[in-house]
Amino acid sequence: MNRPPGMMDVAREAGVSHITVSRVVNGHPSVRPETRARVEAAIQKLGYRRNSVARALKSRRSSTIGVVIVGSELFELPRILLGVETAAKQAGYWVSLASRQGESTTGDLVETLQRLTDQSVEAIAIVADHPLAVEALSGLVLEVPVAVVMSGSVPNPGLSFVEVDQELGARLAVRHLLDLGHRHIAHLTGAPRIFDARARVDGWQAELATAGAEGTLLEGDFSAESGFRLAHRLCAAGTEMPTAVFAGNDQMAMGVLAAFAERGVKVPQDVSLVGFDDMKGSGYLVPALTTVRQDFAHLGSSAIELLVRMLGGDAAERQKIAPELVVRRSTAAPRVDS
Amino acid sequence: MNRPPGMMDVAREAGVSHITVSRVVNGHPSVRPETRARVEAAIQKLGYRRNSVARALKSRRSSTIGVVIVGSELFELPRILLGVETAAKQAGYWVSLASRQGESTTGDLVETLQRLTDQSVEAIAIVADHPLAVEALSGLVLEVPVAVVMSGSVPNPGLSFVEVDQELGARLAVRHLLDLGHRHIAHLTGAPRIFDARARVDGWQAELATAGAEGTLLEGDFSAESGFRLAHRLCAAGTEMPTAVFAGNDQMAMGVLAAFAERGVKVPQDVSLVGFDDMKGSGYLVPALTTVRQDFAHLGSSAIELLVRMLGGDAAERQKIAPELVVRRSTAAPRVDS
DNA sequence: CCCGCGGCCGGGACCGGTCCCGGCCCACCA
DNA sequence: TGGTGGGCCGGGACCGGTCCCGGCCGCGGG
C-alpha cells in the first residue's frame, strides 16, 4: 500500500522543502547548483515522478489536446492521426481521443466537446469528413482553441481550419488530362454531402470551362463498388464515351478499372483514368494509377501547430495545403482516330 | 476571470453542503428526493460540470486508458483504433494516445509507459507489429493492467495478449488452394522481423506438409513494391513456376498482380493468388482477390474488454481471434495440362 | 419515557502539486 | 559598522473534488 513518492518525500530525503523540489523539477533558476544536485539525487533515489494530474488541477494546464473524429468513413484517418500525434508530442502535448460515429445529432458534438473540456484539454482538433457534422459549432463560444480538419467551413470566426485544397487538386488532374488532349472528361464524384467531393466537382467544372471541354458527371460515394457501378453505366450509356475519367478517389478508380476490365475497355489506350488520394498501392494497380496526392500526415501536424500557435495567443486562421499530381501509367493522349 | 462553477457554488445555490452535491452527482442513495431535485436544479442553473481532473487526483481513477502505438507500418491501424475507441467509450473510458515511431531503444518503451502512468491512466493497451518492439516488457513489473495487441508473446505473466490467429489464416488460405488441386504453392512473405509474417510462414509450411505439397518461399516486406519484385523473380527463375501464390498481404498481392500483368501471366488461369487482410478495395482488384479477412476493429475492442476485465480483478489472458477466408475470383483449379 | 437505530446530511482532512509572499543570509558600499 | 539589495529558500493557501466520520432527528420497542 505504499503509494508513489511525492514532492514531500523527495524534500525530506534531500533535506529541503517541497517548494525547492518543485523549483528543481520545473527548472526554476534560483536554486543553488549544489542544492539542485542534492534534490536531483533524491529524485533519482526515490524514483520520483511528478503527478501530472495534480499539476493539471492547480495550474489548469493539462498539456493535452483533444482530438475528435467524426464520421468513420475517413479512409486516410490513420495518416492524419499519425501527424497529429507526432506534432503534439513534439510540442509537449498529449492526445486524448474521442470519436463520434453514426448519426450525428447537433447537440451530440457539443456534448463531446464538453466532455473533452471537462477533461481540461487545452485545445481541440476536430477531424471531420463533412461540414454537416460540425455545423453545431457555427455560433458556439469556444472555451479553448479549436481547429477543424476538413474542407468547407462553418461561420465561426473563432475556429481554425486546415484542409488540402481539393479544388486545386481537381484542377491539377483535369489540367493534366486537358494537356494530353482530352476534350471530354467524365467525373465520378464521391458522396456529395462530403465537402471534398463538392470541391473536386467545382475544380473539375472550372477547369473544363476554361478549356471549353465537355464533361459528364456521375454520382457515387467514394467506394470501389460505386466506381465499378458508375463505370459500367458509362459504358452502357447511349451517349458517346468520354476519353478520360476523373474518379472521386483511388478506391473508386479501382472500381472503374475493374469495370473497364470486364467491358474490355483498355486504360489508358481507350480511356485515361485519374484518381485522388494516392493511397497505398496505387502505384501497383494495373495500370499504375495517375492520381493526386494528399499529404495527410502534414494535415494532422498542421492542425496541431495551428492549435499551439493559438494557445500562444495567435488568432484563428485558415490554412490550405496544396496537393500534388503524380503522373503514372493510367493517363495518355486520346486516340487520334476517335 | 470567472472560473467555472464548482461544487461549492452549486451547494450554496441549493442551500446544501458540497458533500450533498457530490452525492447527487455520483448517484449516492442516501439523499432525499426533494433535496436531490433542488441540487439538480442548481446544477442545471449554474451549468455545473464535474472537474474530472480533481476527481482523478483524489480518487486515483482517471477513467482513461492509454494506448501506445509502436511502429508506424501498421497499415490497418485505423480500424484497430476505431475498435479501441468505441469499446473504451462503451466502458466509460477515455483514450489517451502515445506513439513511438522509428528506432526503438528498449528503454524507450518503458519511458513511454512511465509517462502514461504519470498521466494516471488506469490501464494500457500496446499495439505493436513486432515482438522486438515490446521485448522491454519481458521482466517488468507493471503498475497497471497491460494488454498487447500483437502476434507473438513476451515472457511476462502479467501481460494480456490479443491477436488474430495468423497461422490459422495461412492454413485456411493454403488449404483452399490445396482443395483446388494445387501442388506447388509459393509464399511471398512479409518482413520476417514481424511476427505475423513468421506465423503465416509457419501455417503455410504446416499445411503444405500435411498435404505433401511443394513450396517456394520468397522474402519481402509487406509492400506492394516487394510483391512486384518477388513476382518478377518468380517468373524469371529457372525453376518451375508454382501454380499458386500466397502473398504476405493484399498490398503484396497487388504488386504480384502488377508483375504478372507485365509478364502476361493470367490470374487465376495460369496461377492462383491469395492475399491477406481483405483491405478496402480488394474485391475490386482485377481479378477480385481471394484473401483472408482479419477483423481489426474486433481486435481493438477485444483488447479494451480484456483490460476492463483485468481492472475488475481478472487475471491476464491470451486471446486469439479467428480470421476468415473470403473466396473471390483470383483462385481456381490449376490447369490440367501443366 | 428513554434509548437505540437508521436515514439523511455536514465538517473537515486529504490528494500532490503551484505559486505568492515573506524571511534569511551575505556581500558590497557608504 | 550599519544599511541595503538580491539570491536562495520555506510557509502556507489554494485547485476541486472524495470520503471517513460523526451529528441530527424521528420513530419504534422495551
Automatic annotation (TrEMBL), chains A, B:
Location of the HTH lacI-type domain: 5-59
SUPFAM superfamilies reported for this sequence: lambda repressor-like DNA-binding domains, Periplasmic binding protein-like I
Keywords tagged on the record: DNA-binding, Transcription, Transcription regulation
GO molecular function: DNA-binding transcription factor activity; transcription cis-regulatory region binding
UniProt cross-references to Gene3D superfamilies, sorted A to Z: 3.40.50.2300, lambda repressor-like DNA-binding domains
Top-rank taxon, per record: Bacteria
InterPro entries to which the protein is assigned, alphabetical: HTH_LacI (IPR000843), LacI/GalR-like_sensor (IPR046335), Lambda_DNA-bd_dom_sf (IPR010982), Peripla_BP_I (IPR028082)
Protein name per Swiss-Prot or TrEMBL: LacI family transcriptional regulator
UniProt source species: Streptomyces caeruleatus
